[in-house]
Amino acid sequence: MSGQLKTTEGRTMMRTCKPRYRDTRDCPQRYVPVEVREAIRDKYAWPGGYPLYIVMSDGEALCVDCGKKEYRQLAEASRDKDSFGWRPAAPAINYEEPDLYCCHCGERIESAYAED
Ligand SMILES: [Zn+2]
Predict the structure, then answer these.
(1) How far is CA 104 from CA 56, 109, 110, in A?
(2) What is the three-class DSSP state of 115?
(3) 34 sits in which H/E element
(4) Measuring CA to CA, which residue among 97, 92, 91 is closest to residue 113?
(5) Residues with beta carbon < 5 A to ion ligand 1?
């Protein structure tokens, strides 16, 4: 019974004969760590509004914008347990590193305290 919905709040419980989760079975998105998913959804979501970036499994830094753009790659790499490349490890906060650059687009990753 792995397909049971765990949450009841916020969902309209409509009785239909069609399952609502038809696409999730093979959806690689569910392999992405939930913290990474949340960071991609809102890069300032952490308490305090600190700017987040994504630490990849090989130690590189990826900006959240690239995480969003290349989400498919992140998801597939997570599913396939790639040790290199696109597999995200965890989100991190850039507190005061002024020279942190995204390994994909080369943009500087915003920091909390090192601006200006
Ligand atoms: Zn980037």
Answers:
(1) 11, 11, 15
(2) coil
(3) helix 34-41
(4) 97
(5) 63, 66, 102, 104-105
* C-alpha of residue 68 to centroid of ligand 1, in Å: 9
Structure tokens at 115: 């601006």
Q: Mean pLDDT of all residues in the chain?
A: 82
The residue with tokens 């305290």 is 113
* The amino acid at 9: E
DSSP per residue over 48-112, as a string? T-PPEEEEETTS-EEEHHHHHHTHHHHHHHHHHT-SSSS-EEEEEE-SS-TT-B-TTT-PBPP-S
* Segment 21-48, tens digit of pLDDT: 555 556 788 899 999 999 999 888 557 8
The model's pLDDT over 74-103, given as tens digits with 9 standing for 90+, comes to 999 999 998 778 999 999 999 999 999 999
